[in-house]
Amino acid sequence: MAAAKLRWGELEEDDGEDLDFLLPARQVIGPDVNGIKKVIDYKFDEEGNKVKITTTTRTRKLANARLTKRAVERRSWPKFGDAVHEDVGSRLTMVSTEEIVLERPKPLGAKAEESQAAGEPFQRGAVLMVCRTCGKKGDHWTSKCPYKDLAPPPEGFVDKPTASDASTAATGATKGSYVPPSMRAGADRTSGSDMRRRNDENSVRVTNLSEDTREPDLLELFRPFGAVSRVYVAIDQKTSMSRGFGFVNFVSREDAQRAINKLNGYGYDNLILRVEWATPRTT
Amino acid sequence: MRPILMKGHERPLTFLKYNNDGDLLFSCAKDHNPTVWFADNGERLGTYRGHNGAVWCCDVSRDSGRLITGSADQTVKLWNVQTGQQLFTFNFDSPARSVDFSVGDKLAVITSDPFMELTSAIHVKRIARDPADQTAESVLVLKGPQGRINRAVWGPLNRTIISGGEDAVIRIWDAETGKLLQESDKESGHKKTITSLVKSADGSHFLSGSLDKSARLWDTRTMTLIKTYVTERPVNAVAMSPLLDHVVLGGGQDASAVTTTDHRAGKFEAKFYDKILQEEIGGVKGHFGPINALAFNPDGKSFSSGGEDGYVRLHHFDQDYFNIKL
C-alpha cells in the first residue's frame, strides 16, 4: 500500500517558468537511515531573485502494513456491481467527524475500591454518594446516573400540593379522577414521602380563591388566627395566573382548626371561600 | 479512534465477514445486495446483485475466490468474489439463515428456517472446485432442533458441526453421520434464543451470544462452559479478538422499541470484555440502533460493527487499546 501512495514531498513543483534552465539542478540527498530526505530546489521569486528551497522530509513506514501479494493484487481489482457507477458525491464511506474512544466503565484502578465500597458503604465516605435513581452507592451521583432517563419524574414535582390532593382521591377510590403515576397503586412512594409529611403538618387547603389573590393576601387573611409557617398559592406555570387554590400551614393545630371554623364559607373578594384540612384526618 | 462509516446498505445490517487476509470486508444486510469493501479505508469494491430477499449470512473461501451467501429468498448463492458474478444457486424451500465454508472450502453447511409446515434443517453441500461441476445435492441433512437455527459452523477438522438457534440449545453434530454428539445442558446453557456463534481463531473454543443478555464461551471438544459474559442488553452479535484476550458483544434493545425510548437507554455500544477475567473493558459507541453484526479483522487491529441503522462502522484501534490493563 505504501508503495502505491504518492508522497507529497516527492512531488515536483511545476511552475512553468521558462527561466528554469538558468537555475542549478535539483539536488536530492538521502533518504538516510532515519528516512530523512533533503531536497534542494532553486526557483525565482516574484522579484526575480534566485531562491534556494530546502525541503526536509521524513519518510516513515506506514504502520507496518504487512499485506500478502494476493491482497495487493486485490487492491487493483476493478469495481463491480453497484460500485461501478458510483456517484462521486454519494460519499458512501466517510470518516467519522467524532472521535470515538473506548469508554472505560470506570477509571483505571478504581475497580477494587468500588467493589469494596459497595460491600461496606461506611468506608471512605462513599456512603455520601448514593444514586437516588438506581440506588447504587458510591458509584455516581444522581445526576450522572446512566439510568437517569429511566427514572421517575423528580421529587419536586411530586411534592406539589396537587399530589397530596390526589392522594385523597386515590384513597377515596373515586373513579375517573386523575391519579399521578407516583400516586398510583404499586408506585414506589418511599422517596420523598417524609418530606411531604412535614409540609402536610397542620396544612389547610383554601379553595375558591379569586384570581387576584396572592400569597401576601392569604397571609394577611390567616395571620390573625395564629403563627403561620407557610403560605402557598397555586400558580399556573403557563399563564402565571392563580389557579384558585392555596395552602396555609399553621404552627399549631388549634389555630388551624379555628381558621377553618371561621373562614370556611367566608366571603372574600366576591367569592365564598372553602377552607378545610389539606390531608384527610388520619383517624 | 475515528471510525470509518460505510453507508452502502439501505436496510439493517445482518452479517459481517472479513476474508482470511483481512483486506476485504463482506457485509450482508436486509437489502438484497451483499457488498464487499476494502477493510483498510472502507472503500466499496463491489456489490453482488442477484438476491431477491434479505441476505442473512455469508462466508468467503480461504483464497478469497468464492463467496457464499444465504438469503431469505430461499436461495444460497455462490459468487465470484472478484467479479461479482453468480456461479451457482442452491434452492431451498425456506429462507436460508446461515452459511459456513468448511476448512478446505470443499463443503458448506447451510441452515434453513422453519417455514409453513417445514421444520428447520442443517444442510451440508459439497462445493466443487469448478463451478461447472457444482450440484445442488445435499451430502447430509440434519433435522431435529425446534425453531430457527441461527448459526451453524464447522468444528475442528470438519468432523463436527456446531449449531445454535431459537431453542437456546447448542448442539454438536457428527458431520459424517449426522448423529447428535453433544448438547448444552439446561443449567449451563443459554436461556433464550442464541443469536450468534463464533469460533476462536484456532477453533479450540467458541463464543455464543444470546438474547438472554449473556454470551458464553465453550470448549469445542468437550462442550464445557468456560466463561460467561453478562451484559444488560440482549446480545445480537459476538466477536473474539484474534490478537488479545478480548471478546466483543453487540446488541441493544429490540429494534421495535428503539423509537419509544431515549437513545441512551438502548445501549447500542459494542462492549469489550476481557475473555479470561470476564470483566468489562469498555464500550464503543456510535450506532443509532442495535448492533446486528460484529467482526474482527484477522490481524486483530481493527473491528467492524453493523447496526440496525444500516451503517457499517469500521474501527481501527488506537495504540493505547493494545496497552489496556484491567
UniProtKB/TrEMBL annotation, chain A:
It is found in: Cytoplasm. Residues 159-176 have a biased composition (Low complexity). Residues 194-203 have a biased composition (Basic and acidic residues). PROSITE patterns: RRM. Residues 156-204 are annotated as: Disordered. Keywords: Cytoplasm, Initiation factor, Protein biosynthesis, RNA-binding. The keyword Ion transport does not apply. Component of the eukaryotic translation initiation factor 3 (eIF-3) complex. This is Eukaryotic translation initiation factor 3 subunit G. It comes from Lupinus albus.
UniProtKB/TrEMBL annotation, chain B:
InterPro entries: eIF3i, WD40/YVTN_repeat-like_dom_sf, WD40_PAC1, WD40_repeat_CS, WD40_repeat_dom_sf, WD40_rpt. The lineage of its organism: Eukaryota, Viridiplantae, Streptophyta, Embryophyta, Tracheophyta. This is Eukaryotic translation initiation factor 3 subunit I. It comes from the Eukaryota. GO terms for cellular component: eukaryotic 43S preinitiation complex; eukaryotic 48S preinitiation complex; eukaryotic translation initiation factor 3 complex, eIF3m. It is found in: Cytoplasm. Component of the eukaryotic translation initiation factor 3 (eIF-3) complex. One of its GO terms (biological process) is formation of cytoplasmic translation initiation complex. WD repeats lie at residues 6-47, 48-89, 142-183, 187-228, 284-314. Component of the eukaryotic translation initiation factor 3 (eIF-3) complex, which is involved in protein synthesis of a specialized repertoire of mRNAs and, together with other initiation factors, stimulates binding of mRNA and methionyl-tRNAi to the 40S ribosome. The eIF-3 complex specifically targets and initiates translation of a subset of mRNAs involved in cell proliferation.
